[in-house]
Amino acid sequence: MIAERISEITTALPQGVALVAVSKFHPVGRLREAYEAGQRIFAESRPQELAAKVPQLPDDISWHFIGHLQTNKLKLVLPYVSLVQSVDSVHLLEAIDRWGAQNGRVIDVLLEVHIASDATKQGFSPEEIMAITAAEGRGRGREATANDGSRPQTEAEYGHVRLRGLMGMATLTEDETVIERDFQRIQDLFEAVKAAHPDWRWFDQLSIGMSGDWPIALRHGATMVRIGTDIFGPREY
User: What's the predicted TM-score (pTM) here?
Assistant: First the structure.
């Protein structure tokens, strides 16, 4: 069944849109089924669960982290993931940057946008996203001109973090008009950042859409859809 669901979804996805299998709360055996069906990107939301699953599965999996990440849990997540999708505070962004500096890594991240009307959701406001990216843009502009011919001296705000794009969720509702509105606002913000920083070729990922609303997200420029229940069925633990 998992293989059939993955095939159905990937067939419906346009070229260039990645399927991120949200494997949180599902046992390793089910992840292996998805892997054998060709799935290579998996997402977890709990640090301990991620760290436990990684050594039990093949090395060519690309792991993403999509949950609220506490700074004291970075060592359980950052060594293993190719992308942190859920950076929801400046405090976390700064902590990831420090970890990257200490470990000689540049960490790819998405900034999480809080657009939905659900008060419980984490993330930045659109105004905060524009301020963060503007500050980073000013720093990277100085980096480009501050090269004395030897090693460039970066003044970028976050020298060991690479802002790859935005992640967001629509309001939890069956009203498709509301979902369309939320995704449109996130898409507009994504395009505004790209327009403000046309040289940021790496800023190219928009992660919107989950089980239940991912077909709508495709109409609003999603480059990644995060799907769990539609692949694995109900959570098992």
Answer: 0.90
